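Sorry to interrupt, but I need a hand with the structure work. Please put the record directly below this note.
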Amino acid sequence: MTKLYISCVEVVTSPEHAMLLHAAQTLDGGSVLPGFSLPLHTLFAELDLQGEA
């Protein structure tokens, strides 16, 4: 059996608006957390490491 994992997150900014970000993109805090920035490849790499433990 082959498992396919897609590294993406859904960002919901209002009940009417959502967007999909992929591992090559960066999540930012927008107006809620100005200055916050998280490259998603960093997050997914950490999750991969935790899954191997």
Q: What stands out?
A: The two ends are 21 Å apart (CA to CA). The mean pLDDT is 86. Helices lie at 40-52.
